[in-house]
Amino acid sequence: MAVVSRLRPRIDAAKAEALSLAVRGGVAYRQNHVVIQRLLRFAYGAYIVLGTYKSLTPKPKKKKAPDAAVGAASSEREKAALAAAPPPEEEAAVGGRGKKKGKGRAPRVEVDAVFFARLRKLLHIVIPSLRSRESALLVGHTVFLVLRTMLSLYVADLDGRIVSALVRGQVRQFAMGILWWMAVAVPATYTNAMIEFLQSKIALSYRARLTEKVHDMYLSDTTYYKLGNLDDRIRNADQLIAVDVAKFSNSLAECYSNVSKPILDVLIYNYQLSRNVGAEGLILINLLVQGSAALLRALTPPFGQYAAEAQRLEGEFRWSHSRLIENSEEIAFYRGQITEKSSIERAYFSLIKHVNRVYRIRIGHGMIEEGIIKWLWGSLGLVICAIPVFAKIPGVKVGDMGSRTEAFVTNRRLLLSSSDAFGRVMYSYKEIAELAGYTARVSGLLDSMEEVKAGRFQKKLVSSASDPENAALLKSRGTIVESADIIFENVPIVTPAGEVLIKSMSFHVKPGMPTLILGPNGCGKSSLFRLLGELWPCLGGTIHKPKPSEIFYVPQRPYTSLGSLRDQLIYPITASEMRARGDTDEDLLELLRIVELADIVTRFDKGFDAQTDWNSSLSGGDKQRLALARLYYHRPRFAVLDECTSNMSLELEEKLYSHAAAIGTTVFSVSHRSSLWRYHTHCLAFTGEGSYTFGPLDAPKRLALQTERETLEHKLLAVPKMRARLESLKQAQKERISRPSSPVRRRA
User: Fold this and answer.
1) Which ranges are annotated Low complexity under compositional bias (predicted)?
2) Is 113 exposed, middle or buried, given 0-12, 13-18 or 19+ CB atoms closer than 10 A?
C-alpha cells in the first residue's frame, strides 16, 4: 500500500499529461485537418497503387540447393546437359504431352517472374511500337474507361440529389433530376458500347499480329515439318495456332480493362469518399479489406495451371479426331472404328474429367469469394456510410433528414462502386492466372519454333542412343554445300530418335546418272531422301547438293493441294507466277497428253479452272500421273521417285521414264519392280544391316540373274512336293511286294 501511495502522484501526473497531450493533439488535428486529410489521401493512394503493383509483381523464387549428384558432376558434358535442359515451366507450357514433374503432376503455371518474362516477349510482338495501331486503340480505350468513371461519379451524386428531393417532397428538383438522369444515359451507353468495341478491336489486332508472327516462323524453313517430326515438345500445333492464340489475345485485351479500370475506380471513388466521410475511417476499413483480400488470394486455387491443362487436353482431343480423318481410309479397310472410338473417347473423358474437377473447385472458391467480397465488404461499407451520422467529422456537415439521406445514398453508391472495383481487382488476379496459362502455351510454341529453327531438338531417343559413340554422333553437325552434283562424303544416316542406320555413307551421283535405290524396309532409303531434302539435320560429313528447288520429290501417294486443276500441275508456284514465266494452259495440256491424262480437262467443268477435292476425286493412278506431269512442268535437275509408278502399266512407265531423261532430269527411283532396272545406270543398295553398296548397274545381266534366280526358286519350291510324291510311290511299291499273290485256276 505504501508503494501504491508513493506512485499515485506520478500516475495522476502521467494521466494529466496524457490528457493534456490528447487535448492539444485534438486541437492541432482540428486546426490542421485539411492538411492531414490531404496527407492521408496521398498516402492511401500510394498504398493502393504500390499494393496492387506488389500483388501483381512476381516474387523471386528461392533457389534450391543442387543435389549431390549434380554437384558431383565433373564432366563438362554433364554440366552442359544440365544447363541445356529446359526449365520445368517450359515443359508444362508446351501443347503436347510434356513431361510430368514429381509424381505425375505437371509443374504449376503461376503469376511469377517466368510469366512476366514471357508476357513482355509477347507484348513486343502484339504492340510493336508506340506509333502502332494497337497503341492508338489502347489510348482510345483508356479515354473511354476514364470517361465511364467520371460518369459514374456524376451519377452517384445525381442519385443522391434525386433521393433527397424525393424525401423532401421537392417535385421540381425531382423532375429535373430524372431529366438529367435520362440525359446522362446517352453518353453513358455510347461510352459502354465503345469500350466493348475497342476491347474487341484490340483483341483482334493482337491476334492478327501474333498469328502473322507465328505463321512467319511456322511456315518457313520447313519448321512445320521439323516441329512435328524432329521434336516432341509440340504435339498439336494446329490447336495452339488456331485456338490458343485467339484465347491469349482475348484474355490480354480483357486484362487491360479488368486491371487498369478497377484500380482507377478504387482511387477515384475512395478519394471522393474520403472527402465525404473522412479519410481515417476509410483507411481503417480498407486495411480490414486488404487483410480479407490477402486471405482470399491465399485460398485461390491455381486457375492458370487449370486453364493450361484444359487447353492441353483440348488439343489431345482435337488431335485424335485429326488423326482419324487423316487415316480414315486405312481404318475403314481394317474396320478399326471400335478401337479408334475407344481412343477418342479416352481423350474426351480425360478432358471432361478435368473440366468437371475445375467446376467443383469453383463452387467452394465462389462461395468464399462472394462471402468476402459481397457480404463482408458490404457490411463494412454500411459502417462507412454511417460514420457521418453517428460521429462528427471535421469538415463534414450533417444537416436535416434530406441532407443525411442525400449523403447516405451518394456515399452508398460510391462505396458500392468502389467495392465492386476492388472486387474486380481481386477477380482480375484469377484472370491474370488464366492469362498466365495461355501465355505459357503460346510462348512455348514460339520458343519451340525458335529452338527448332536453330537446329536444337528435343526428341525421345531410342536406347541405343545412349551408347557413347552414338551420343557423340548425335551432338555433331555436318555441312551442306551447294553443288551441281549430289555427293555424300562420310555422312551418317541417323533417325530423329537417335537410331543409327548407317554410320558413314559416301557416293557421287552426277547429272545423267539415274540411280536405283534398293533395300528392305527400315534400312534408310527414306532417311537418305530426307537428308537430301534438308528435312533432317546433317549430323556429320559433307553433303554436296543443288539448291532445294532443283530436287523434286514424287511419292507413292502424291499430294494434291487446294485450288484448281491448274494449281495441281504447277504446285508450288501460283498462276500469276506461271504466266510470268510465259507458260500457258496449252503447255499444261501437252504435259497431260504425255502422261495420258488429257481427258481430265473435259472430265470436270471449267477445265483448268475446275476446283474440287482432288484427293478423293482422282484415283491412285491419276494422282501418280498428275504428279509426274507436275515434275515435267518444273524440269528439276534431280527427282526422287518413290514407288510413283506402282499403279501404271509397263508401257506407260517406259514412256514416262524416257520423257524424264529427255528433259534432263536425273532420277533416284525407289522400287521393287525389276522392270525399272533398265532405266538406271547405277544402283545404291542397302543391306539392312548398317552397310550399303554403290556402283554401276548392268541391267541386262542383273535381269538375267534375276530370271535365273526366280526359276531356281520356283524349282526349289517344287522339291518338297516331288519328295513327297517319291515317298508315296516307294510306299505303294512296298505294299505291292509284301501282298501275297492269289491262286490261279487251271482249265480242265
Assistant:
1) 739-748
2) middle
Residues 629 and 713 in one domain: no
DSSP 347-384: HHHHHHHHHHHHHHHHHHHHHHHHIIIIIIHHHHHHHH
Q: Would 603 be classed as within a structural domain?
A: no
| Per-residue model confidence as pLDDT tens digits over 705-740 | 677 777 777 777 778 888 887 788 778 777 777 665
What is the C-alpha R_g of the chain? 41
Cβ–Cβ < 8 Å for 618, 679 = no
CB 429 within 8 A of CB 111: yes
Q: Which domain holds residue 228?
A: 45-60+83-453
Q: In which element (H, E) is residue 643 found?
A: none
Contacts of 500 (CB under 8 A, 6+ apart): 464, 470, 473, 492, 493, 494, 690
- The answer on 717 and 657 residing in a single domain is no
| Distance in angstroms (rounded) separating the CA atoms of residues 79 and 727 | 73
Hey, CA dihedral for 452, 458, 459, 461, is it positive or negative?
positive
Give a yes or no: residue 612 inside a domain. Answer: no
Residue 22, domain member (yes or no): no
| The three grid cell numbers given for residue 631, joined into one nine-digit string | 515434275
Same structural domain, 420 and 528 = no
Contact 156, 413 (CB under 8 A): yes
pTM: predicted TM-score of the whole model, two decimal places: 0.68
The span from the CA of 496 to the CA of 536, in Å, is 8
Q: Is residue 429 located within the same domain as residue 446?
A: yes
Which cell numbers hold the place of 249?
489475345
Does residue 295 contact residue 315 with C-beta atoms inside 8 Å? no
Strand order in the sheet with 479-482: 479-482, 542-545, 486-494, 500-509
Please check whether residue 575 lies inside any domain of the structure.
no
Beta bridge partners of 543: 480, 488
In DSSP notation, 521-575 reads TTSSHHHHHHHHTTSS---SSEEEE--GGGEEEE-SS----SSBHHHHHHTTS-H
Cα torsion at 411, 412, 415, 421 (round to 10°)? -130
pLDDT in tens, 86-132: 333 333 334 444 444 444 444 556 777 888 889 999 999 999 998 89
Domain boundary among 668, 697, 726: 697
